[in-house]
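Researcher: Next entry: Arsenate reductase (Neisseria chenwenguii).
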Amino acid sequence: MPSEFVLYHNNRCSKSRAALEWLQTRGIEAEVVRYLDTPPDLAALHEIFRKLGVASVREMMRTKDDLYKELGLDNPDLGNDALLAAVAAHPALLERPVLVTPEKAAIGHPLENFEALV
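Model: Predicted structure:
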């Protein structure tokens, strides 16, 4: 049976490692997706966006990352579909860590954001 929780994780990120520890100390088993090795497809990104309940895809992107600016993603004329396509093509743009449940999702900045999901 698949886990109720999915953690989009980057092991090189201290915040993401802290999120994994946060889950483990609470006895919460999560499917861990190393999204740089196994990137979510466009449909999965749409679902994460929907579950986050945010107005703009930028809220789930690493907007301070050099790649974001290099790709011209700071252009205010770009809509959510274009931004999701960019994340699908460049998974490093996905903010991390992201915890997803069947109904909702949260970005672990700060980790306390996960409290509403457990």
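Model: Note for the record: The chain has one domain: 5-117.
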